[in-house]
Amino acid sequence: MAMTVEPRVRKGPVVRNAVGRDGGFRRIGVKRLTPVIGAEIDGVDLRGPLGPEVVEELRQALADNLVIFFRDQAITPEQHVAFGRLWGDLHAHPAAPHEPAHPELMIIAADENSVRANGEGWHTDVSCDPEPPMGSILHIVECPPEGGDTLFANMYAAYDALSDRMKAHVDGLEAVHDGEHVYRGLYANLGVDDKPSYPKARHPIVRTHPWTGRKCLYVNQGFTTHILGVPREESQALLAYLYAHMAQPLFQRRFRWSPNAIAFWDNRCAQHQAMWDYWPHRRFGHRVTVKGERPV
């Protein structure tokens, strides 16, 4: 019997809607960097207090664009922490080194003596926590002459681009996110002792964003180990497909750092990957992470 192959059906572009906007902001400038993800903010000085109207517009810009960038922000560690606290309680990283006076201020550094750099590989920060972080605010003080970019990807767009059959398949499934294999021994070269255990949690593969009500994919190569309730081979195959799908350039924006630039991204609907392509040069900064809620 002859086998018929159903042709691939295309009903328009993979990415159909632009999530951001430039207009409608009165107190800040918002310049979108792609139709899908990322915007640069101007007209804001993070060294001083921000009024509630400015904070609300920044919140809207973040909700629209998933990651927002600020240039030329020579903030102190104290100002960095204060800006983070505008968004909620701050999260202390379960493994990474931090500034002695500020446990919530994670050190981001790589140079000619490093054996690794923070954030290589697609991930969302500390998704192994039962209540993973809402957002991360990274201030890079020192940049290499070239390289050191960070890529960001839109997980709303990744979910929306799945077929209806795949959406029906993954909706309702849960996956395990585990920090043990990620953090055990990771910072030993910096003299950081391991903890007795690291966070582990189960989260839905598709989560609903608490601000926007939109669905997005919530598995990542860094922390997700397997899908619950299916054979391991099926879990591995499905996760491999989702990881490849999420990494499409259509969903991405690549950010070129400059001294005293800041990126503020929403961990609930965006993933990121740091490029360590600048050895032996130095990249240095700090990250503040805002606590989040249990994914639903």
List keywords for this structure.
single chain, 296 residues, alpha+beta, Double-stranded beta-helix, nine-stranded mixed β-sheet, three-stranded antiparallel β-sheet, 6 helices, 17 strands, disordered N terminus
Short description, anyone?
The chain is an alpha+beta fold and 296 residues long. Helix content is 19%, strand content 27%.
Describe this structure in words.
With 296 residues, the protein is an alpha+beta fold. 19% of the residues lie in helices and 27% in strands. Strands 1, 2, 3, 4, 5, 6, 7, 15 and 17 form a nine-stranded mixed β-sheet that branches. Strands 14-8-16 form a three-stranded antiparallel β-sheet. α1 (52-65) links the parallel β2 (39-42) and β3. The protein is globular.
Gross morphology is globular
Q: How many helices does DSSP assign?
A: 6
Order of helices and strands: EEHEHEEEEEHHEHEEEEHEEEE
What fraction of residues sit in β-strands?
25-35%
Tell me what the CATH architecture is: 4-Layer Sandwich
The CATH class turns out to be Alpha Beta
Largest sheet: 9 strands, mixed
Number of separate domains = 1
Question: What low-confidence regions span 5 or more consecutive residues with pLDDT below 50?
Answer: 1-7
Return the average pLDDT rounded to an integer. Answer: 93
Distance from first to last alpha carbon: 47 Å
Q: Determine Rg (CA atoms, Å).
A: 20 Å
Number of distinct beta strands: 17
Label the structural class.
alpha+beta
Fraction in helix? 10-25%
The CATH topology annotation reads as Double-stranded beta-helix
Instruction: Output the CATH homologous superfamily.
Output: Clavaminate synthase-like
